[in-house]
Amino acid sequence: MLEIRNLHASVEGHEILKGVDLTVNAGELHSIMGPNGSGKSTLAQVLAGRDTYEVTQGEVLYEGRNLLEMAPDERARAGVFMAFQYPVEIPGVNTAYFLRAALNAIRKHRGLEELDAADFLDWVKDKMKLVDMDERLLNRSINEGFSGGEKKRGEILQMAVLEPKLAIMDETDSGLDIDALKIVAKGVNTLRSADRAIIVITHYQRILDYIVPDFVHVLVDGRIVRSGGKELAIELEEKGYAGMEQKNAATESIAS
Amino acid sequence: MLQVAQKTDDYLSRFAQVEARLAGDGAAFLLPIRKKAIERFAELGFPTTRDEDWRFTNVGPIARTAFGAATRDGEAVEAQQLATSALLQADWPRLVFVNGHVAPQLSSVGKLPGGVRLESLAAVAHADPEALQQHLARHADYQDHPFTALNTAFMEDGAYVHIPKGVYLEQPIHLVFVSTADAGPVVSHPRNLIVAETGSQATIIETYLGLGDGVYFTNAVTEIIVGENAVIDHYKVGREAQQAYHVGTTQIHQDRSSNASSHAVTIGGALVRNDINTVLDGEGAQCTLNGLYLVSGRQHVDNHLRVEHAKPHCDSREFFKGVLDGHGKAVFTGRIIVRKDAQKTDAKQTNMNLLLSDHAQVDTKPQLEIFANDVKCTHGATIGQIDENAMFYLRSRGLSEPASRGLLVYAFASEAIDRIQPQLLRAQLRQTLFDWLPEGHRLQDAR
Ligand SMILES: Nc1ncnc2c1ncn2[C@@H]1O[C@H](COP(=O)(O)OP(=O)(O)OP(=O)(O)O)[C@@H](O)[C@H]1O
Ligand SMILES: [Mg+2]
């Protein structure tokens, strides 16, 4: 589904991603872990189409198409979804309207009939139960005045409504209490299916108690330095990222 | 600026004819006022950008154009055409003016409650001049404002609205000023007098509407007298034609404990200047001046506000928002004068602008003149662009670039539209905003 090859990206001439390779197949759940500033969000944003990051080398294929050539909204309509680490507050734009417009743009692209306000409400109410969100939030402006936890659950709600094929969660677990964390995990687990792929970017091993990844990757300084199964997350928990970097350096010196 | 070949003389010589024609009219009291006004205009001439009040607005195109007097061709306007473009409401009492003259066949006053008067100013000047004497031309300043001077010298028709003591008028009164300028550049000088007596309440909507593509000039003045404890909500909706010039003054005079609101929405016109002036002349009076301007192409829209706190314990609120596209230009000046005695004044001014193009331009400035020492005066102006983070967020969910942009502009402007009280007018203006926005039709159900 997703193939990232030797991806380099920089911002204002400063290189952040320094050659990322990653293949994600349908049905798989990958977790990317890494310390602060290692480039996790940069990777997520590049995949979603943020143009403040300049891709200087490499390529990304999504369902065989050149993802980097697609506009952000085109990617979304084609099934790519990124849950923002910092969801944006948009005063004056009604959440329900926004969600329905987004859903209809995607449905139209998929050749499905657009939903009217009433049908949409039925659709969204089920999804809101899933993330245990108050329906009143639908009538507020997007993320405006939402608590940190509400914003994160709002991202999960959007994901549940839009039913993407490839979902990238950028630290959706950060700053959540254990109950909210379980809700987020439930949302992700509900979405898991044979024709979807999910990338969970996280700082902490904690969420992986609730979402069991097929693969874990460690991103340090713009490169994936280790890949493995879920046991890698546990090793990481014990040794920390410093250990990973050392190991990486060792591998490199052997190779040279 | 170069001294242009101004058409001042045209107006002076035309005044001689008007003077002769109006000399025999009932409103003899007006003649000396007209004379004073035209003399003052002769002295002032058209303003230039050297005048502080006109620094950012060049009225050269108006000064240089030879405008003929607008004819009484009210017949030319089809009721049907008007109904759709002026967005008339059947149950709103209305007076329609075509090129400055009342058009009875398009008007519909109906039965008004409690002795409310809604009549053609020309008719009242002829039959009942005493009704006008106390207030007409007593509030709008023709000494320092050349266009008000011109209007005062040349005024012929407009609306006279009188709300007697304690009367509450439920339906808004709609005053519609239609210009048809197919027969060369013409000028009209609509003049309205609105008097709300003690404890009365009413909503007045003025719509300025251009039909056709010609050049014309509307030079309007409205005087509003809000009596003690009276409540007036005033709306001015500018839907002038693409090549039109519009200069208009809304002059509000407020008595003790009165409450006035003014909403100036400008959509059309090549060059538009709205002067909105309030004198808070009684303790405890409150005013709210709201506005919205949507400016595109090569339009120039200037809102010039002047709030005078003359007495203590008065509140004023100004809230203007503008969206500019293309090579559009907007000017906002918010002058607040607090007189020596006006202690406990509470004045707040906000002007926010959203630029959609690199070529659009805004000049915004507050002017505070405070002579009292116990006052609260705040002001804030912003000029911003579309928030790229918000754009990316919307697009990352599948909304196209124009749809995302439209939604964000809508969100910005709707804050001003939400302040419009009459539900029908609010809905119409929301529709106007959709029509104006790129892909706005997709936003129809955004609320
Ligand atoms: N728009 C930007 N402008 C300048 N520098 C940036 C920008 N975005 C990211 N960076 C820098 O790039 C590096 C990687 O940032 P990124 O946000 O991708 O890290 P991260 O792994 O997501 O970190 P965190 O765990 O804190 O979320 C950091 O040093 C950051 O300061
Ligand atoms: Mg991050």
What does the model show?
The complex is a heterodimer of chains A (256) and B (447). Helix content of chain A is 38%, strand content 28%. Chain A is of the alpha/beta class and 256 residues long. In chain A, the strands form 3 sheets. Chain A has a 6-stranded mixed beta sheet with strand order 6-9-10-3-11-12, sandwiched between helices. The C terminus of chain A is likely disordered. Chain B has 2 domains: 281 residues, no CATH class; 59 residues, no CATH class. Helices cover 23% and strands 37% of the residues of chain B. In chain B, strands 1, 4, 5, 7, 8, 10, 12, 14, 16, 18 and 20 form an 11-stranded mixed beta sheet that branches. A 10-stranded mixed beta sheet of chain B has the order 3-2-6-9-11-13-15-17-19-21, covered by helices on one side. In chain B, a hairpin with a 2-residue loop joins β2 and β3. Chain B starts with 7 loop residues before the first helix and ends in an 11-residue tail after the last helix. The mean pLDDT of chain B is 92. The interface between A and B is medium-sized, with 32 and 26 residues. The site of adenosine-5'-triphosphate (ATP) has 15 residues of chain A, from α1.
